[in-house]
Amino acid sequence: MGIGKKWAMSALTACFMLTMAGCGSNNDAGGNAASGESIKIATDASYAPMEYMDTDTVKGFDIDFIKAVMEEAGVKYTITNTGWDTMLTSVQQGTEYQAGVSSVSITDERKETYDYSIPYFESTNMIMVKEGSDIKSALDLKDKVVAVQGATTADTLMSDIMGVDNTNLKRFDSNAVALMELNAGGADAVVADIAIVNEYIKNNPKEKLVGILDKENFGSEYYGVLYPKGSEWKAKLDPAIKTVIENGKYAEIYKEWFGEEPDTAGLLSAE
Amino acid sequence: MDFRFDLIVHYLPVFLRGTLFTIGVSIVSILIGSVLGLGIGFGKMAPKAIYRWPFHLYINFFRGTPLYVQILIVHFGLIPAFYGTTNVLMTSFIALSLNSAAYSAEIFRAGIQSIDPGQREAALSLGMSKWQAMRFIILPQAIKRMVPAFGNEFIVLVKDSSLLALVAAPEIMFWSNTMKGQYLRIWEPYLTAALIYFVLTYSLSKLLNYIERKV
């Protein structure tokens, strides 16, 4: 009996340890960590190709970018896939995680609650419709049914155009479900980040989808690293981010993920 | 950490609309679910195993798989197959009703089977038909025993309806997520949602207590 109980306990412990190991904590120490400082970074790894899980490792453009920044700054760091909500609450508190890197767009409303780094990525939203649709610009979406991922800037932009309380603006948990809604005929269009729309169109040629850029209504937006209000890390890491963008390291990572040159001049003058 | 009541006030009108949606969907689903559940419950008590089998399967499927997945299957599989496109209102009613029917069926079956077989035998020996015995002797006693379990199921259903946010049904959690996205704040939208659900379920349990005393 006693042995059986002990055995069950160790089996249970083993189970937990296996699950914990699988939750994607990526201990990637910076190369020249001279200062001995360290930072814990949270991310929501469900936004390929920006940040996503490849089984139990976090990968993506943001992950490679932050690695370059930390090497430049000489700061040790860990980046963990905490999910979106946990990332937001814990970065707001700033006790466990001191920063969030997860394609977070910089907006004035969000600045009331968080500090942001200098912009490190330029993005724009894109409309995706089925071939032969009469939608030509963002304003054509006003009286249509539009699917977006909730809590994104696509959501904010479409809320401004259609009204925040308009139920024809369907906000889904993820872009994956929003895209399914378009394919199932439940929405006339999806609005999402250009990288996501292009990736989806490229991967699903059979669905006969087209992307529409509307620079007039969907301006450029910028991603920033998220810090708690009044964080010291902003002052420490902003110079490193600037250096990485200037010294060509950024362009190297960018080309690796997106196959084209970034507009680093535009990025540096954005703030 | 600060708490921004002004943001909640700003979102209050849509939260109220979401609450109405939640209430509406819950009431309709519990009604459809209990009617379906009654049939399924009787089906599961059929005398021959071959008739019991499909009902058995139904109950085990809906009790044994996550509602999260059931909602996706209904929304992207079932509804488009019959209706051509997705329809979030139909998804809400159908997914919750089908799920609730499985639980209600077990409540009905357990309630009816908890009545001593002697009651039925006595009724039959008095010359009542099988239907009369069920209608006048067994059900009145069984329903009394079902009410607490049924109330429990109703409360669970109200909270489960929050999963409909997955397919963008404009209910309470949907608006919480919307608010979260605009300000990237967690506590204001989620605690507001929790409070609304609490008020709903607490009033519901008061109402159910009252009904329990009446029957």
Give the topology, please:
The complex is a heterodimer of chains A (271) and B (215).
Chain A: H1 2-21, E1 25-26, E2 38-43, E3 46-47, E4 51-54, E5 57-59, H2 61-73, E6 76-81, H3 84-93, E7 99-100, H4 108-111, E8 114-116, E9 121-123, E10 125-130, E11 146-149, H5 153-162, E12 169-172, H6 175-183, E13 189-193, H7 194-203, E14 209-212, E15 221-223, E16 226-228, H8 233-246, H9 249-258, H10 264-268
Parallel strand pairs in A: 2-6, 2-7, 11-12, 11-13
Antiparallel strand pairs in A: 1-6, 3-4, 4-5, 8-16, 9-15, 10-13, 10-14
Helix pairs in contact in A: 2-8, 2-9
Chain B: H1 5-44, H2 49-64, H3 67-83, H4 88-113, H5 117-125, H6 130-160, H7 172-183, H8 187-214
Helix pairs in contact in B: 1-2, 1-4, 1-7, 1-8, 2-4, 3-4, 4-6, 5-6, 6-8, 7-8
Structure overview:
The complex is a heterodimer of chains A (271) and B (215). Helices cover 39% and strands 22% of the residues of chain A. Chain A is of the alpha/beta class and 271 residues long. In chain A, helix 2 crosses helix 8 and helix 2 packs antiparallel against helix 9 (249-258). The radius of gyration of chain A is 21 Å and the shape is globular. With 215 residues, chain B is mainly α. Chain B has helices spanning 5-44, 49-64, 67-83, 88-113, 117-125, 130-160, 172-183, 187-214. In chain B, helix 1 crosses helix 8, helix 6 runs antiparallel to helix 8 and helix 7 (172-183) packs antiparallel against helix 8. Chain B starts with a helix and ends with a helix. The chains are: A alpha/beta (271), B mainly alpha (215). The A-B interface holds A 85, 88-89, 92-93, 104, 109-110, 112-114, 147, 150-152, 155-156, 159, 164-165, 167, 170-173, 177, 180-181, 184-186 and B 1, 13-14, 17, 72, 75-76, 80, 84-88, 165-168, 170, 174, 177-178, 180-187.
